[in-house]
Amino acid sequence: MGEYFSGIGKIRYEGPSSKNLLAFKHYNPDESVEGKPMKEWFRFSVAWWHTIRGMGADPFGPGCHVRPWEDGSDSMKMALKRIDVAFEFFEKLGNPFYTFHDRDVAPEGENLKETNNNLDKAVAVLEKHQKRTGVRLLWGTANLFSNKRYVHGAATSPNADVFAYAAAQVKKAIEVTKLLGGENYVFWGGREGYQCLYNTDMKREMDHLGRFLSMAADFAEKIGFKGQFLIEPKPHEPTKHQYDTDAAACLAFLQKYGLEKRFKLNIETNHATLARHEMFHELEFARANGILGSIDANRGDMLLGWDTDQFPTDIYLTTQVMLSIMANGGLGKGGVNFDAKLRRESFEPADLFHAHIGGMDAFARGLKIAAAIRRDGTLRKILAERYASWESGIGAEIEAGKHSFESLEKYMLKKGDAAPNASGRQEMIENLINEYIR
User: Fold this and answer.
1) What's this model's pTM, rounded to 2 decimal places?
2) Burial class (CB in 10 A: 0-12, 13-18, 19+), 113
3) For the segment 370-398, what is each residue's pLDDT rounded down to a tens digit?
4) Taking the CA of residue 92 as centre, how many other CA atoms within 13 Å lie in the half-sphere pointing to its CB?
């Protein structure tokens, strides 16, 4: 195995004063924050599809990234070479996890049997590299959106044979995820939605999707896969409307089909933006409902209307994310997966390191800032004061289920009017957060 990133050594922590652009300034994996090392708070993961397979294509032009190891093919030989490239990158960057779609690591064959054989060959090499390096699989998934068979969707396709093929593909993907020790399995409904309601039986499609996920969960239980199942919300793109629109829609869907105890969510920043939500909102909703499982770390461009998947460098964003994750006690089996890609103009291999270093440092700063906010307790005190009326008296009685509309009418007729509201002091709170971000 040759060296593909020559001139770049292992990325190390050198502290905030370092001028080395290929060193961590804030991410110190063994530094303890609230009794847990940074590496455990984050469980950083590199996404195969963007980092190893991404070539800088956009809607207006093909890829232009310089990757000396690429021969331009989607051959099995090239797929195996990419595994060597990937693990050299992982070892030098120091991320403990990676993620992949089945088609990221092995090409399709002439039929399902040949496709599965290709995947088996790739998985055998992946397994050897994992044992050699200690890098683990955070989650696997199946690409049910690129091949033209999925033009109308996979589990929601009007073609029953496509549903069956998708089931076989997911079965195999779950098997290899288990074989590689994957800690999660993700479902992203890239084309599970519609472009035109005139030709769509929405109820039937959603019923089929519910059945598909139930079958997947049943199969995982049958083979003893202990990993966590995750759904990744996204409102649209490539379809006009996708059934996994946002965290709330996903929870409602899971509850309708009796799957809420078998699935959690993998929340992505850029998908939250497309749903007209902040990442903070999606995380807090998932946390409040006990379904926060993992995150895809990226950001969108507020001036563009598509999924730009840029690396996260906004410290306000990473602080908000870490406030939610810390309040959740961490991500359990999940992690912080960099579902992010280089800009088309950042085309040299070294740019992959700069991008991930920046993202990891931004999250490390967010973690330390969030810890300081929690340690100081001012924000917690403000929140407690705002909801103080629910801690005793009529508020505590309502929460305890001791009242009805009739009894509350009697209470207010006696009191005459509600107690005056207190200011929300949003501007003061935003100023307070600015005090921590220095």
Assistant:
1) 0.96
2) exposed
3) 999 999 999 999 999 999 999 999 999 99
4) 22
